[in-house]
Design a protein that fits this description.
The chain is α+β, with helices and mostly antiparallel strands and 175 residues long. It contains three helices and ten strands. The protein has a single domain, classed as Alpha-Beta Complex (tt1808, chain A), CATH 3.90.1570.
């Protein structure tokens, strides 16, 4: 189970289905290699974390996005004395939508991400093979792009410096 606390209410979710896991794993692996990992396969400049536990706000809300990314200069560090959760909001978060979490991700978590001033959020839907890219504006999130082309790489902010192949979202196609 995955647990989150939003507006003081506990939400429990079963572990994700395989399609969800493949999408999160594929995307996280690509972004880590290209933008974390000292820029081994790309420009670097980021720290990419799979399922970071975020404690945000005064109460706090406890959220677990599928992926979170901090620009290197804002990352709070890996000191062994640190708590196992983050109180510094990431610069980017991705939610991989599933039937059991899509409504919560859109209706409850997105407003908290906006409140915490997370500049970019992606909603990745492995069932429809689409990605919605949101950028924080003065009145909340603005949808800047919807991508779903399985034949062309995606150029999506804030990672537009390197086109992302479709396989990075869905894994290679298996029967």
């Amino acid at each position: 189970m995955t647990a989150q606390v939003i507006d003081g209410q506990l939400y429990l979710h079963p572990r994700p289905a395989r399609r969800h896991l493949r999408a999160a794993s594929s995307l996280g692996s690509f972004l880590f290699g290209a933008f974390d990992a000292a820029g081994v396969h790309g420009p670097g400049g980021w720290v990419i974390i799979h399922e970071p536990e975020l404690h945000l706000g005064p109460e706090p809300d406890i959220l677990v996005p599928d992926l979170g990314g901090w620009r290197e200069e804002r990352y709070p560090g890996d000191d062994d004395n640190n708590d196992p959760y983050f109180v510094v909001a990431p610069d980017w978060a991705a939610e991989v939508l599933s039937e059991s979490t899509a409504r919560l991700d859109r209706m409850r978590k997105l407003p908290i991400y906006a409140r915490e001033r997370i500049p970019h959020v992606w909603l990745v839907d492995p069932r429809d093979r689409t990605v919605e890219v949101f950028r924080l504006g003065s009145d909340g999130y603005v949808l800047t792009k919807t991508w779903g082309d399985e034949n062309e790489p995606a150029e999506l902010e804030p990672f537009g410096a390197l086109p992302i192949p479709p396989s990075a979202f869905w894994g290679r196609l298996l029967r």
